[in-house]
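Blinded run. Sample ID left blank on purpose so nobody reads anything into the name before looking at the predicted structure. Input follows.
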Amino acid sequence: MLFAAFVLEKEPMRWVDVPVGFLLWLQNAGFLAALTVVLVYLVHKSRPKAQTGLSTIGPIRAFLNSPISALVVFGIVGLYAAAGAAFLLLSRSNLGNWLLVAAGGLSLLLVLIPPLHALLFRIRWGRVWAMARLSQKEAIRNRVFLVFMAFALIFLFADWFVGGKPADQVRNYVRVLYWSISPIFLLTAALLGAFSIPNDIKNQSIHTIVTKPIEKFEVVLGRFLGYAVVLTVSLMVIAGLSLVYVARGVSEEARRESLKARVPVYGASTFFRTKGESVGREWEYRKYISGIGAEAGGGTVQYAAWRFADLADLSQGPGNALLEYSFDIFRLTKGDQDRGVYCVFTLFAGFEDEVESMERKIDAYVADRNKMRAAGKVDEAELIAKHGMYQKGDEEVSDYVTQRLEVPRALFAEVAKKEGNLQVMVNIDRFNVGSRQQMLGVANRDLYVLESERSFYVNFLKGIVGLWMSFMLTLAVAVACSTRLSGVISFLCAIFYYFAGMVSDYILRLAEQREAGGGPAEAAFRLFTRSSVGAPLQESPGTSVLQGFDAAYLWVLRRIVNLVPDVNRFDLSSYVANGFDIAWNRVLLVDNLIPLLGYLIPWGVLAYYLMNSREIANPT
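Blinded prediction complete.
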């Protein structure tokens, strides 16, 4: 096999993660909603005759003038205060989390009532579509589609950057095309959304619109929908041309090897007789097992294991079932650089927990297999039925190359009897002197059961859908910002928001104090005192004050940082480039579409309030 290993450091969300994610979303989005409600209430009460922006909207003005408003606002503040006290005073923060959920939910309910009422009773989608058609005509009249002519350069010169080896052709084609599509459409989406409403106000053409029986928010929805259609149609055309370009450009050998989309079944990785060793590499994605202690004829053998639960019945089908793997080799001795490491693969129907019991079963299996071999015929089906396991030794594992192991279907008949549980054990061959002096690096996704193979072309379009979602997010942010800010500032905000999302994991690690140096107050103290980043601070009242300030600051930062999108989840090029199927359910729906909606809803609500609180009649 010619494929490179598929590396995925963050597992996609699952359906069981959605309720927890929703509660976290309530906390984070609700925190910003609570700040808005409290600030508007305080400004309204201190300056009752002043126009406070949000208080000019009918439902909000009615709430602020009602006697129940003080009770609700102070109730929200009390819930947050109680949550903070629970976090500080209780060792377990479950109570604090639920108080945050309650406060966030109440705040969001207050903020969502006016836009939901408008969507249900005041907004007419016919008028929204009319605005969308106007936006499309303006985009065509402004020759926005000429921006996409830049892809002609990609199609003309991409071959310069695509390797000639069949192992690299499809991967390089996919990466060049995806990395070209992303910046062009990203900038176009930001520009279209950022300059739409500001240009309407500057040219005073919006006055003609708002004098008609139309809601202000319908202008926002129409602009977003119209530009979304333009970007979607353009992306579909570019994706179709890109598919033709890939199909035309790859060689026949690369087509046979690479134009596919594997459907893998992953298990949970673990280790036996080791926790997985570190070899000192900064990137700790893989852990390593050693063969040094496994001397010929004895010694302790380290195992890497994968457990597959509730595996589908694969006992039927043509030929053998397939197990695919791709490992890293860390060489302790020079040896033969052009040779791999010889490993032993042992597959059990059901889970084995005791190493000694497992090795006794292996010895019995090997003894019976040797007897059959001496008799001149090895019946694997009989061995599997008797021992409930299958072993394949003397397998040469190459460095970072995806390889296949054929497994008799009879084993999966035994797996079905064990509630679909399969355990795969991998160890370095202890009888091979050159191999047992090396180390084998493994990760959870480095070994999987191959369920089937699907169309590469459909998978390519699935990856484009992921990019489309990131463009829709950028467009929504740009349109929302343009309701109050100028075109240039809105464009910069949308681009900054996107690039902040690209490093959201790092920002979150800072907010959770997983990086050395502490928070901003502690970092400043270390800077002025020239203290080492790794050295603990001396305990003192001043240190306690600094750390207390950092704790409060980082708590607020976590609430804000969690609203920054993880845009890397929308980049599915690694799936397509390495030939792995993008699941409609778990990847596109759960891991992409649901988080996208979680980001779009707050921005849509913000755009509603900003647009409705703006005085359109005065273009200044």
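Unblinding after everyone has recorded impressions. The CA atoms of residues 207 and 617 lie 7 Å apart.
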